[in-house]
UniProtKB/TrEMBL annotation, chains A, B:
InterPro entries: ATPase_NBD, ROK, Tscrpt_reg_IclR_N, WH-like_DNA-bd_sf, WH_DNA-bd_sf. It comes from Actinoplanes sandaracinus. Belongs to the ROK (NagC/XylR) family. It holds the Pfam family ROK. SUPFAM superfamilies: Actin-like ATPase domain, Winged helix' DNA-binding domain. This is ROK family protein. It comes from the Bacteria. Residues 23-65 form the HTH iclR-type domain.
Length: 400, 400
């Protein structure tokens, strides 16, 4: 609970330095290799300051010099670029059917992407085995990037459901977990003192990845998960919306009918969709949705009337749910993620029409509905890049 | 549209100064009269810096010395306090049935609170007459505070409905307005060059007032209007949620039934409530809700079964709507405003039960449902204090 007004902290020269380090890092992150002179010209910092900041960042191995200047200001051959050789960050993603590990270097280049089959649905015997599997995968990923000579800036685990600010999974219906202190369990298993381990909601981390790598020209976007549940990751003015306890974005709980009626997750979820559109599923939960989604997409592409009708209905319900979201937080872009992305071609027309019809603001308040291009591991990517974001605020890593 | 990442601006000594001015102003705002020594001790600024900052603020007449030190650190008789004598800020509030003007001095003390009967509902002939009435009231309020020797820091008008970032009312169902550039019209009418005129959503401004004066120990609150419509003003981590175009908080549009069904405003609005509970209303809109709400409260207090039943039903629907909001933005406090506040005693039990029942997070994600104590002019107060907030960030007024 935050009980006091967010008073500003007194500022001193350390803050000026951190702010200006952030200016240089973000300029290079956004613009690619640039000369000191062009950084100075673009940011308003004077050249001596840029040189001093660059010197410190080179010494810390966050920047390096390169011959490839992206512009013509300054002498050729002296451009600066982000240095990927010294640091890495790791994201892990837990879903009911698989684990994903992803690592990026400080320059944002992907170092590894591993998937592991995983039976983590609610029918299993609790989180113990899952935590061990996650810890083992995290350990392997960390070992791999260390063998490459890189220091791990941090590791973030993405989980569907309610995750509090301390890294405890309070409730994850897709995993069947309640009150699992995943951050403490993982920190204990990893035995790497000083490693920054975080746990956060899947949708929120995917939204961070979309903000940074999704190619959307906006600071106000919402990412919608379409996996074993529907959740929204909401970014407002470039910052993830955490709420008072971290429990935001639970749009799957929206009920569009009278009390006790079906929820948005029932009406517009991926599993109900494939059950409606495809024959032959038993009563047990469908955890591995990918083959069913591929099959459904193939049917739709072939013009199958049943598939198209099921997709249209799901799109309508989804649009109604997204209208509630648009009425409340007014995003500029709504990104359909996970399995929705593969079906977006057929979902979006109906969803966009219902979205526009059900918002008070004209045209859905300007919200554009787009498909994610980041694949099924967007949350793992978001978990990894969140550690780069932290360095980019001017909080440089302490060498361990 | 915000199309670029919110890159930090380079920092220099001016920013350090502004940040530290903000630290001093907010310390005094939060803690009352304090000596220079106690400010230094509480904020971490050194005494020489505090003295220098205080000198500048006294010279600008934002602070004054007082004999009333609230603590025992430092010599008695040399405490600093906010100075209300030189500056004022004005908030205006437009509702379908009345205009409200409110002014506060820089110390936050109320200088005037005026109400004017106003026939501004959708049946009237458009915004022209309304704008003239608002401009006349604004002019009178500004003249009054100037006659008291105070410079006007700014004037903000609260309007129900969609207001964009430029001060245009895009759509206000309670007023029947569409695309009214109220900011330009008012700026033109007032003929006071340099006066900072803003227009913003009623609920958002009321939320700002609640954050500052509502007595809620939180940075994550949502204010819910219960007037001629239902809107939410959402404050996240101490900042109002504006979304991409300013069109947030339209919870009145939530539909809890199948497509085309009744909205939350139909089911839980104040006007539908008084119509259900009290006989004798004609088909025309009930604009002056206060007498009806008073009557309903009196009946409920006397145990009238029909009144209690109507309030219970409205409370249930309201709680279902607030659950959608709590699932999405996870506020710590939900403030029932306007006419809801007068009826909160009977609405809250049912609403709180439905809120808890319909959120994924236990206990509604921790959201507490409380009644506003700021009365029917919370939005006007929010409009006025928003200008004090700006000074408190260290952006000192330029003397005109």
């Amino acid at each position: 609970m935050k009980t006091t007004r967010a008073d500003p902290q007194p500022a001193d020269f350390t803050d000026v330095r951190a702010t200006n380090l952030a200016v240089v890092l973000r300029h290079l992150r956004a613009n690619g290799p640039s000369s000191r002179a062009s950084i100075a010209a673009s940011t308003g910092l004077n050249k001596a300051t840029v040189s001093s900041l660059a010197g410190a960042l080179i010494e810390q191995r966050l920047l390096r010099e390169t011959g490839l200047s992206g512009n013509r200001i300054g002498r050729p051959g002296t451009a600066l670029t982000l240095d990927g050789s010294a640091y890495a960050a790791i994201g892990l993603q837990i879903a009911a059917d698989r684990l994903t590990a992803l690592a990026v270097d400080f320059a944002g280049d992907q170092l590894l992407l591993w998937h592991r089959a995983f039976d983590g649905g609610p029918a299993t015997t609790g989180p113990g085995r899952a935590v061990s599997a996650v810890a083992a995968l995290a350990q392997r990923a960390a070992t791999r990037v260390r063998q490459q000579g890189r220091q791990v800036l941090g590791l973030t685990v993405a989980v569907p459901g309610l995750v509090d600010g301390g890294g405890t999974v309070r409730l994850s219906p897709p995993l069947g977990w309640a009150d699992v202190d995943l951050r403490a369990l993982l920190s204990g298993s990893l035995r790497q003192p000083g490693l920054d381990v975080s746990v956060a909601n899947h949708a929120g981390l995917a939204a961070v990845a979309e903000l940074r790598h999704g190619g959307h020209p906006t600071l106000d976007l919402t990412y919608v998960t379409g996996a074993a549940g529907i959740e929204a990751g909401i970014v407002v003015d470039g910052r993830p919306l955490h709420g008072s306890r971290g429990f935001t974005g639970q749009i799957g709980r929206f009920s569009l009918g009278p009390a006790g009626a079906l929820t948005l997750a029932d009406l517009a979820g991926i599993e109900p969709l494939v059950r409606r559109a495809l024959p032959g599923f038993g009563p047990e939960p469908v955890t591995d949705l990918t083959p069913a989604v591929d099959h459904l997409a193939a049917l739709a592409r072939a013009g199958d009337a049943g598939a198209l009708s099921a997709l249209h209905d799901t799109g309508c319900h989804l649009g109604q749910g997204l209208a509630l979201l648009a009425n409340l937080v007014n995003p500029e872009v709504i990104v359909l993620g996970d399995h929705y992305a593969a079906l977006a071609e057929w979902l979006v027309p109906a969803a966009a029409a219902e979205l526009a019809r059900n918002t008070l603001a004209p045209s859905g308040g300007g919200a554009r509905l787009v498909a994610s291009t980041l694949g099924l591991h967007a949350a793992a990517l978001g978990g990894a890049v969140s550690h780069l974001d932290r360095v980019d605020t001017g909080v440089l890593p302490t060498n361990t």
